[in-house]
Structure formats: structure tokens, C-alpha cells
Amino acid sequence: MLSFRVPTSFRILRMSHLDARDILFLALGATTIAYIAILVAGLRRPAPPSEPPNPHAKSWALLATGFVTNFFDTLGIGSYATTTSIFRQWRLVRDERIPGTLNVGHTLPTIVQAFIYTRLVPVDSRTLILMILAAVLGAWLGAGVVARWPRRRIQIGMGVVLMAFAVIQISKQLGITPAGGSLLGLAGSKLAFAVTANFALGALMTIGIGLYAPCMLIISLSGMNPTTAFPIMMGSCAFLMPIASARFIRASCFDRRASLGLLAGGIPAVLIAAFIVKALPLYTVQWLVVVVVVYTAGNLLRSAYRERARAAVAATPEPEAAA
User: Residue 290: what pLDDT?
Assistant: First the structure.
């Protein structure tokens, strides 16, 4: 029987030679492939009759929305609040379909961000992986609930979380939140706090609040270097969004054209922001985002109040005709 030894350069790479980040990348690649298959299958299904064509949703407007929101998302502003504001201002997506559309449309651009920043920015592997797992679990539980919510409850939920986003952004702009420390990882009670908080943020993402701004706040409160927020928040979103999106796709609770517009416009925006622009003076832009978000949150809550009033009127029995 012939025998031979495979040269070292051709040996199969052992799993022991892979560090935690390598395994994370392999898992992210497998998640991406699975998500694309789910998305394609969902798009090939006939559209539900409750999804009539939207005359306001022009293709160029959807692509521009995907480009602009993901460009600033890559630079750290976040995309959910800004996208929600654009969708409502120009009536591109109906309120009850906004959470699903945000998750489905922004998933692949966010995965691209994660591949870029998780490799570039140093952070403790245990802290990174535990916070990602917590966010994924929160999103899986949250998406199953939000996909069944009625329109008015979604309006209230998005309005409240957008107000919370505005408060966090204002505190950052005014320098109220701590600047952070120099840690690259956490342990003990600080790690438990960060993991628990990221679980809650994963669940809130399914309503429509972005994870970026509050995640940066958690990182700063924990004493970590603020730059470590980028791989943590982008890695969290890259894993949790496919999980949440799959549930929205299964429930047909998203706008197909708008989701594709966000996806197609978002990926090139991420590459341009990450490799060409890299950084911008965003102080004024962030104040503008706060103003727009507060305005949108007020509109959502006002719409929910009006729908409640209309429902109350409709439920009031008409007085009997006089004999």
C-alpha cells in the first residue's frame, strides 16, 4: 500500500489554529449565506394582498435612503432612526411595516460593516462574543412579538424608543455621558451588566431603535475604549438582524421594494464610508438627526393617539332612533 505525507503547507487548517475572531468570521459567513437564502425565498413568494403598491415609493428615493442612512451608519450615527424619519416624512413605507423593513433592508449592509470593523478594531474576544450572543437572543425573542403587533402599538413603540434615542444623542452632544476608559474587555459585574444591556438592545432593535447609540453609551459607562463599540455593535447587529429579519420575512411583515432599496443603496455606501471617507466632522449632523428624530417620534405618537380616538368613536353605539 502506498503511503505519503502531506506537506505542511497543504495540511488542512486545524480548528485549534483558529482564534475566536476567526470562528466568529466563519459563523458570520454561514449566517450570511443562510440569510440570503431565506431572503430570496421570501421575495419569491407572492406578495400578500395587504401590500398594495405605494405610489410615493419611487425606486430612486428608496436607493437614496439606503445610501444616505448606511453611509452615516458606518460612521457611527446609526441608521434606524434616520430611516424611520425618512420613511414617515415622505410616506415611503406604512407604519406597521417599518420595523420589519428596517431589519430586512439594513441586514446585508450591516454585515459588510461587521466584516470590516471586527477585523480592524481591537477588542477582547470573550466580551465581543458574549455581547453578540446576548443581542441575538434578545432580537430572536423580540421579533417574534413585534411581528404580531397591531399598527397602533408599533407606532407607540417606535415613538417611545425614538425619544429615548434622542435623549441619548443629546447627552452625548452635551458631554453628559462619560467619555469612556481604556479597557478592551470586561469581567465580573461589568461584563454581566454589558451583556444584559445588549440583550435588551437586541430586543429593542426589532421595534426600530438602533443599537449603535445606546451600545456606545454602555461601552462608555463600562470604562471601555469607545472605539471597541464599533466591532461590538456592528457584530451584534450583523448576527441579530438576520435572526430578526427571518421572522419578519416568514410573517411577510416588511415592505419588499423598500427593503431592496435599502440593501442596494446601502452596501456601496458602507464601502465608501469605511475605506474612502473614514471620518467626518459629524457634530452638526448629529444635532440635525436629533431634531428630525424628535419630530418623527412626536408624529408617531400623535398618529397613535388619533387612531385610538377614531377607534373609540367607531366603537360607540349609535343612539336609537326616537320613536
Answer: 81
121: left (phi over 0), alpha (psi -120 to 50) or beta: beta
Q: Which three cell numbers stand for residue 8?
A: 505542511
Of 244, 260, 173, give the one whose Cα is nearest residue 210.
244
Q: What is the pTM of this model?
A: 0.78
* Cα–Cα nearest to 224, from 236, 232, 234, 213: 232
pLDDT in tens, 217-234: 888 888 898 888 888 988
* Residue 224, SS3 per DSSP: strand
In eight-state DSSP terms, residue 183 is: B
CB atoms within 10 A of CB 152: 18
CA-to-CA dists, residue 31 to 34, 207, 238, 242, 256, angstroms = 5, 22, 9, 7, 21
In sequence order, which residues have a C-beta less than 8 Å from that of residue 283 and are 6 or more positions away? Answer: 173
